[in-house]
Amino acid sequence: MASKPKPLQMALHKVIMVGSGGVGKSALTLQFMYDEFVEDYEPTKADSYRKKVVLDGEEVQIDILDTAGQEDYAAIRDNYFRSGEGFLCVFSITEQESFAATADFREQILRVKNDENIPFLLVGNKCDLFDKRQVTIETATAKAGEWNVPYVETSAKTRQNVDKVFFDLMCEIRDRKKEETAKPDGKKNKKTKKEGKRKKKCVIL
Amino acid sequence: MTAIRHTLQKDVFLPNDERLLGVVHVSKAGKKKKASFLCAAATTEKPVQVSIVNVKKSDKGDTYKRRQTWQLRELKLVDGKDDTKLCQRYLIKKRPDFVNVNPQLLEEAVQVGELTRTMPQGAEDVVDEEYQVLTAQEESDLEKLISQCDFAVSNAEAFTEQLSKDLSMLDGANIHSIMASEEQVKTLMKLLEVSETEINRIEKRLERYEGLLEGVREQMEQMKGKDTLIQMQNTNYKKLLSTLDTLVGQLDLSPGHVKALHEGDLSNPSHILDCTSAAEALQQAMGVQLHPGLCKMQAVREQQKMFEKLRSSFARRLATHLNSVFVQQGHDMGETLSHHTLEPTLPKHYSAHRDLMPYADLMLWLKGADITSFHQLAQVYTSNLKRLYDREIKEFFEAAKSILGSKPSAVDSKKFGKLMGSTESLGKSSGSKLRSSSLLDIADHKGSNPDITDRAKFERVLNSIMSELEPVCMVEQDFIIKFFHLSTDSTATDLGSDEEDQPEEGVVDADGAMFSKGHTERQAEKQVSSEVRRMMSDLFGMLEPELHNFINHADKMDPYNSMYMLVKISAVVMGMEEKDAGSYLATTLATSVVIVKRNFDKLIQAKIQSIEDIKVPKNKRCGILPFVASFEEFAELAETVFKGSERRADLDKAYGRMVRTIFDNVERVGLEHQKTPQDVVLFENFHHLNAVFARLKITCLETEKKEARHKYKQHLNAYVINWLGHPMEKLNHFFEGIEARVAQGVKAEEVGYQLAFSKQELRKVIKEYPMKEVKKGLDSLYKKVEKHLCEEENLNQVVWRSMQEEFISQYKHFEDLIRRCYPESGITLEFTIDDILKFFSDIAQSH
């Protein structure tokens, strides 16, 4: 069986989890990957996951790079930001600082990718802890609006919207790739097509 | 006088406990005035003592004195101046003489005395009371007497005379009457004599009567004897009549029945019914328990002979008819065999069974009437239907195999789509929809993967084989039990006893042995008798070899098929456990499970063998080892196949063995691989294994999952440390040397005074690594990492991040060592942390 040709043509979307330490990037990843929620906190350095999923009837692979929230030197992130095709920028709604930090991440990503329209989702995690909320939906939505990206609140614990954020992001990545292959000159249409984004809505299967 | 009496009572007698009875005024003849009283008194206490007391009244006053007292018994003479009733009453024996007393009084006293004497002697108290009671009566008597003789008181003599006159008159009358009674006695005597003679005469007559009666009794007894005889005869006649009646009734067979037995059309259902009832009637008539004596009757013997003839002729007719029916059926159904290509189907024998069922009662009759014909018929049925079943089963499995054999080509894909539609419903009916549909989902997405579609197809074919086999076998088994009236409740213990007239013991034994191998726990349960099993194994003789053949064929096509079969056939056997334990199909499938399990074990063994046999690729990057990928595929499939199966334990055992072998061989390949560093082989493969275990959530491999994760991290770190040494190799060595000195006890600030580690040496080494060199080193390291690692596992970023981190901390460590060992020397590395970070950013941008 092993000798059979691998399904090479399967699309591969590379997703990077970013955000401050302890906001639940790994928890979201593990919930999405294995349907499990790990209570104990163990800071991640970096880990890679791969999963086959069906996106709008098409089987694709998603690569998730779960990264460290705490890095001594931000430049270390340059390399893996560079490798990412889409970003889930996560903060905890119970922690104002983590929300503030998203701006730095966003800035670094845009700089490294040199692409204003890079697929990007602002994710407010831990929405099950609403009684400890520090970041209002309005604030976060306003920020997302400013960046022209979607804002989604999730709970890795209750699995609320977990699939949604990954699938939404993959849809954006896929659509971006289609746009690029449609342009034979291959030049990326940076910093221009803000209004062209997110016209297709995804269907989660 | 009363006053005196009262005074006397009170003053004289009461103090002495006496009662004054009477008082008489007496006086002496001479003297005048002196008053004396003679009193009669009785003691109040018992026994009563009566005394006569002379009481004198004293001269002065009214006091009385006792002068003299005489006891009544001392009285000798009573002068009859007054009545003497006293002594009459109280002195009966010793009566004083009475003078001057009225004789009537005396007589009455005598009467009273006699009266008193009749009282019990010595009971004087009673007497006393009698006296008290009688007083009133006596008084009245006396008064009467006195009133009769008024003169008595005045003239006692006249009265006496009168009395004696009366007496003599009475005497005379008495004598006269005595004289008269003699005559009467004489007449009485005469009468007595007469009656005596009369009595004698009557006695004689009675004797004669008795003699007469004696004779009558004898006659009566004779008559009684005769009567019983008559009655006996009567009942005997009645009994004989009823016996004959029942005999005739029992042995009579209605002409209709005889006709039916002779000419009933056995192919016409209503005639079959007639024949059945006729046969039953015949059976009943023949089965009647007759007295042995009755059997000697000519008529009975003839009738029985007739029955015998009738029975054998009908049995022959029936056997011939059914014989041809069986042959016909075997032939006809063979003709109409349908040739499906899409789904393997087994023709159902419902209609044949329906045609035969009307004969079931006749078969029961035949079993009783003619056991040899019955067995012959069963034999004919078996051999004819066996031929049919053989053919059907063979074609059934051929069809199944041909479906499996046809590889899905471009042309076939349309047909395949249609097939999947039908499988949906099939999956539903066999209760395994969940599994089959989940597989089909995958098949949908991976339409290009022939493995998956083949397996989905195999599962579908297997399901339909099982769902086809079950009804056919169970229906046939039910049919032969009902039709041939085989016992169903015999247990394993009487396996042998049933087999006297069954020549093929060997078959049954072999069958039973295999059966017990698979399912020993069934022994105690209700079992289908060996009789049924023998017949079924005759009929379906082809099933077992064909099934085994198919199992091995499927295994050869794709060893993974054995997993489906292990799960599916086990589930079918388990499912039948309750209702059809020990049915022929159950036992046959149970033996198949043994074979399938053996194939499954072979599959696992082959997998393990192939892991152990894997050759290390020479000139290629190692990446994920084929057996790791293959295990993932196997586990993924196995998890869906074994979901909820009772066979889970078998899979877990297989997992354990396989994973152990995989771990060992990952390490072996790591060591042997030429191109890829050992650590890379290890961390990539263990990372992959960890992900597989986590994704499939194989609970029995929890420890292995942790072990894989641990090994992944351990070897990742080892790789990073090991390969970071390369970009600034000399610098590295230099500082390692310093560290070694410090470790040996050299003071940090004195290391610089050693020749090998002087400031000049340090400067020389540092000079060798200007910014450009470092950047080049990092660039080539990055390329090395990219070359070592496979794209598939996507660990480049993880490794590179780790290397960046490690490189910075190394840089800091060097700076720290310079500061400590060469203080105030002002020596620094040729590049700063910012330079490093810029290199990193540049590397990031460069690809």
Automatic annotation (TrEMBL), chain A:
Signal peptide start-end: none
GO biological-process terms attached to the record: signal transduction
Biased composition (Basic and acidic residues): 178-187
Top EC class of this enzyme: hydrolase
Enzyme Commission number, as recorded: 3.6.5.2
Classification via Gene3D superfamilies: P-loop containing nucleotide triphosphate hydrolases (3.40.50.300)
Transmembrane segments: none
Residue spans of biased composition, Basic residues class: 188-205
One MF term in the entry's GO annotations: GTP binding
Region (Disordered): 178-205
Topology class, membrane: Lipid-anchor
One of the record's GO cellular component terms: plasma membrane
Places the protein is found: Cell membrane
Matches recorded under InterPro entries: P-loop_NTPase, Small_GTP-bd, Small_GTPase, Small_GTPase_Ras-type
Keywords of the record: Cell membrane, GTP-binding, Hydrolase, Lipoprotein, Membrane, Methylation, Nucleotide-binding, Prenylation
One Pfam match: Ras
Family per similarity comment: Belongs to the small GTPase superfamily. Ras family.
The protein's name in its UniProt record: small monomeric GTPase
Native organism: Branchiostoma belcheri
Originating gene: LOC109478727
TrEMBL record, chain B:
Signal peptide residue numbers: none
GO molecular function terms noted in the UniProt entry: phosphatidylinositol-4,5-bisphosphate binding
InterPro entries given in the database record: Sec3-PIP2_bind, Sec3_C, Sec3_CC
Domain Exocyst complex component Sec3 PIP2-binding N-terminal: 31-105
Residues forming coiled coils: 185-226
Presence of the UniProt keyword Repeat in the record: no
Any GO BP: exocytosis
Domain of life the protein comes from: Eukaryota
Protein keywords: Coiled coil, Exocytosis, Transport
Alphabetical list of Gene3D superfamilies matching this protein: 2.30.29.90
One cellular component (GO) term of this entry: plasma membrane
The keyword Transmembrane helix belongs to this UniProt entry's keyword annotation: no
Family in the record: Belongs to the SEC3 family.
Protein name according to UniProt: Exocyst complex component 1-like
Lineage summary: Eukaryota, Metazoa, Chordata, Cephalochordata, Leptocardii
Protein's gene: LOC109487292
